[in-house]
Amino acid sequence: MSVVLPISFRALARQLLVLTLVSFTACTVSYNFDADIPGSGSTALRSSTPEAVGMDSERLDRISAAMQGLVDDGLLAGAVTMAARDERVVHFESVGYRDKEIGAPMSNDALFRIYSMTKPVTGVALMTLYEEGRFRLSDPVEQYIPELKDLQVFAGTDSNGNMLTEAADHPMTIRELMNHTGGLTYGIFGQSPVDNAYVESGIGDAAAAGLLEPGETSRDFVAKLGQIPLKHQPGSRWEYSVSVDVQGYLIEVLSGQSFGSFLQERLFDPLDMADTHFYVPETKLDRFSQMYVYGENGELEPGEMFSGADYTTYPDFEAGGSGLVSTASDYMRFSQMLLNGGELNGVRILAPLTVALMSRDQTPEAMTGSILGNGGTTFGLDFAVTVDPVEAESYSAGEYYWGGAAGTWFWIDPVEEIVFVGMIQAAGALTPDVRGLSRRLLYQSILEPNGI
Fold first, then answer.
1. Do 320 and 393 share a domain, yes or no?
2. Closest CA relative to residue 193, chosen from 158, 222, 151, 162
3. Do residues 286 and 434 both lie within one domain?
4. Which residue among 79, 246, 255, 333 is least crowded, i.e. fewest CB within 10 A of its CB?
């Protein structure tokens, strides 16, 4: 389906961490407000004109025009954007191409690699077990995963460059696992001996790509992870990490089910997320968007981010941090459920207080550094959270969000009652700031704001 291009993933990863975030005449697909987005009975997404929820149609149309402009400039092949306010979809449009080499237009039902937008899904799944009393956030991870027991912490190197370690001042907790302060890392965003050990063990790029050796599972993953020291003392600083892959395995331990079957039973089936999977079945390949990277001259070139990536077969490693494929409407269902306090049209996944717990600051008071280097931003349980909209150049305190390495993004704004989902498939330094652009264009279309 595509050509795999050689990429220096460490360099690409740094660019993507800063971003999480030829001219073509392309098709634009607009949403028909006369028909709701289908679902199984009560899970249908209801639609509305923008004016009915205090927004301006002409101003909202600037989002599609901007995405089309990025396609015309050769920076994107295509995009799907979707917005809802007051539980009504007010914008759902596609521009450009799903695969520009064959001239296949982008469509609203296109499937996308969502990479790290898998993380909030995993976090919600784990918190359904929290609601059942299966664990406490303060519980040590090693209580449930003995492969991570008695981890040492990196403390420098000796004269020969060998790692020195010290004992952890406390065992990593599940809260620290969910807020990325547990001392784990990814191995691809830094050059420390611990980062290098991740790469050498095969769990650095592998976790980011959702790839391990054939036949290896989440249990094999945590077994390898348990052989590497923590990069920092637990709770001392925030560092984006493989911790959500560990959460996927924790779900298996606590539930006695495979991670994939648990997601299907607890989230995908109840929310009618019929197109969200760890792979793309043959019957849906004609809706799967082509991935693009940027060539030496800035041109879009088809190619997977990771050598060996194959979405046509079900993986042995169900990666909780990066493995899912989804659509804009599926992710809108998931996000609207959260904005509604854990419920979508009568289908309840979480209690309102659990959603509130996930979307508030969960980082330690003594933590050093900032989240992604951004002011006004902190971290909850598998979500970034805006605490100071001015410093974060955002609009509402309490907004929570995340994105994926292939360009997908979403945010949930409890003040303005907004959910926004955007889907592209592009990676590299030239990837446009679609999240920032869509944010400005969405909020300038609100003429009846709740926050002032």
1. yes
2. 162
3. yes
4. 255
- 92 and 146 inside one domain: no
In a domain, 251, yes or no: no
Number of domains in the chain: 2
Q: What are the φ and ψ backbone dihedral angles of 147, each rounded to 5 degrees?
A: -60, -20
Residues 169-187 have pLDDT tens digits of 999 999 999 999 999 999 8
DSSP reduced 3-state for 311: coil
Do 109 and 167 have their domain in common? no
Report helix angle 328-339 to 118-131, nearest 10. 40
Distance separating alpha carbons of residues 70 and 28, to the nearest angstrom = 13
Question: What CATH number corresponds to the domain at position 111?
Answer: 3.40.710.10
* Alpha-carbon span 177 to 172, nearest angstrom: 7
**What is the C-alpha separation between 329 and 275, in angstroms, rounded?**
9
Q: What is the pLDDT of residues 274-331, one digit of tens each?
A: 999 999 999 999 999 999 999 999 999 999 988 778 899 999 999 999 999 999 999 9
Phi/psi for 241 (5° steps) reads: -155, 180
- The residues near 321 (Cβ < 8 Å, ≥ 6 apart) are 116, 118, 119, 122, 207, 208, 210, 242, 243, 244, 245, 248
- Domain end: 221, 245, 269, which one? 245
Do 280 and 424 share a domain, yes or no?
Answer: yes
For the stretch 111-134, pLDDT in tens is 999 999 999 999 999 999 999 999
Cα 394 to Cα 414: distance, rounded to the nearest angstrom: 13
Is the whole model's pTM more than 0.90, yes or no? yes
**Which residue carries 């990676």 as its tokens?**
427
Say if strands 292-294 and 426-427 run parallel, antiparallel, or are unpaired.
Answer: parallel
- Which residues contact residue 355 at a Cβ distance below 8 angstroms, ignoring those fewer than 6 apart? 338, 341, 342
| Domain hosting residue 205, numbered range | 136-245
Determine the Cα–Cα distance for residues 212 and 308; give it in Å rounded to an integer: 10
Gyration radius of the chain over CA positions: 21
Residue with tokens 């006369």: 34
Could you tell me if 173 and 321 lie in one domain?
A: no
Say if residue 141 is in the same domain as residue 271.
no
